[in-house]
Specification:
The chain is an alpha/beta fold. It contains 9 helices and 16 strands. It has 2 domains: about 150 residues, Rossmann fold (3-Layer(aba) Sandwich), CATH 3.40.50.10740; about 180 residues, Glucose Oxidase, domain 1 (3-Layer(bba) Sandwich). Helices cover about 30% and strands about 20% of the residues. Helix 8 runs parallel beside helix 9. It is globular and about 50 Å long. The model has no long low-confidence stretch (mean pLDDT about 95).
């Protein structure tokens, strides 16, 4: 089992880098971005530091890599937050200077396409943080969700154990960012139904690894994952994006991980609440529930075939969900099936 190093935490008043490593969200939706920055200042007492590509509409991958390296090289910057996800960060990581990232490791927060960098830091032996988005979660319409705010604050500033909490309400239907007036209206929310547990009644503890399932598949196809032994004893964390991959695709991705021998290495699996709505596919009612049920069945089938002894928890509020709980990527996660409890060490 790998043991990664936790980078030092920022303190209130510190400077933190805000970077756009993939999608140019701040250039497209400046009003949402500015709201996220204001909350970073006012609610977390952190000073955001921008870079040449943070608001650039079409930045070269080499320039985005240069900005990230500059953030890690600056001793006054004590954490790094991604503005949003995207779809081409896989072209950025080859241009990073790993010696600089190792020399002064800093907490990095991001999810979705940022799985590329989370995994890259994992391979460098540095704990990072799955979650936290300046646009999506800090820029949430109405107000920050209390669970998101509490988890992010704990991950930023504390180093002890933190118990994850099932959400009483949740949403996967964001407001329309193209309408600035929508920022004043909270998103539609649905009643929470808790987590759903499968597998043996035992306690599993290990470093977290995984992220967005589609991005993991890209990383595997690009030969970026390995050696496989580094994942032995890890807790697998998976979630799916607003592209709403179907049950067949989800099963096949997991089957491929199983055929490689990866799934058998995980003693526990945390499955994020599946996103089942997008502006291009606004599923509601029975169609939405069918998507959720079919995706859970696909995950259950694959894990039953390749990791039958794993403890599995569905509908954890991580990834493309609101609220969003922060997972320490490479940090320690404890999955207590008898106690129905998930704890993370930030």
């Amino acid at each position: 089992m790998r043991h990664l190093s936790y980078p030092p935490k920022p303190r209130p008043g510190d400077r933190v880098a805000v970077v756009s490593l993939s999608s140019p969200g701040p250039a497209l939706f400046p009003h949402v971005y500015e709201l996220g920055l204001r909350r970073l200042r006012e609610e977390f007492d952190l000073v955001p530091v921008e870079y040449p590509t943070t608001r650039a509409p079409r930045a070269d991958p080499r320039d985005r890599a240069r900005d990230l390296v500059a953030a890690f090289a600056d001793p006054t910057v004590r954490a790094v937050l991604a503005t949003v996800g995207g779809e081409d960060l896989i072209t950025v990581t080859p241009h990073l200077d790993d010696a600089v990232l190792r020399a002064d490791p800093k907490p990095f927060f991001g999810y979705s396409d940022n799985t590329n960098l989370l995994h890259h830091l994992f391979q460098l032996g540095v704990v990072a943080y799955h979650g936290g988005s300046v646009l999506v979660h800090l820029g949430r319409p109405g107000a920050l969700h209390p669970l998101t705010a509490d988890s992010l604050r704990a991950a930023l500033f504390t180093s002890g154990w933190y118990d994850l909490t099932p959400a009483d309400e949740w949403s996967d239907q964001p407001n329309d960012w193209q309408d600035p007036a929508s920022l004043a209206v909270p998103p539609v929310m649905f009643p929470g139904q808790g987590w759903h547990w499968q597998g043996p009644a035992r306690v599993v503890e290990g470093p977290a690894w995984g992220g967005n399932l589609e991005i993991l598949h890209w990383l595997l196809a690009a030969g970026r994952v390995g050696p496989d032994a580094d994942l032995t004893g890890c807790v697998l964390v998976i979630e799916t994006s607003e592209e709403l991959p179907g049950a067949t695709e989800v099963y096949r991705i997991l089957r491929n991980l199983g055929e490689r021998g990866l799934l058998a290495r995980f003693g526990a699996v945390l499955v994020g609440r599946a996103k089942a709505w997008d502006f291009a596919r606004p599923l509601t009612g029975a169609a939405k529930q069918q998507h959720l049920d079919e995706q859970r069945a696909a995950v259950t089938r694959a894990l039953g075939e390749y990791a039958p002894d794993a403890v599995v928890v569905f509908d954890v509020d991580l990834g493309h969900t609101d609220p969003q709980l922060i997972i320490p990527y490479g940090g320690t996660v404890r999955v207590d099936a008898p106690g129905r409890r998930i704890s993370v060490r930030y």
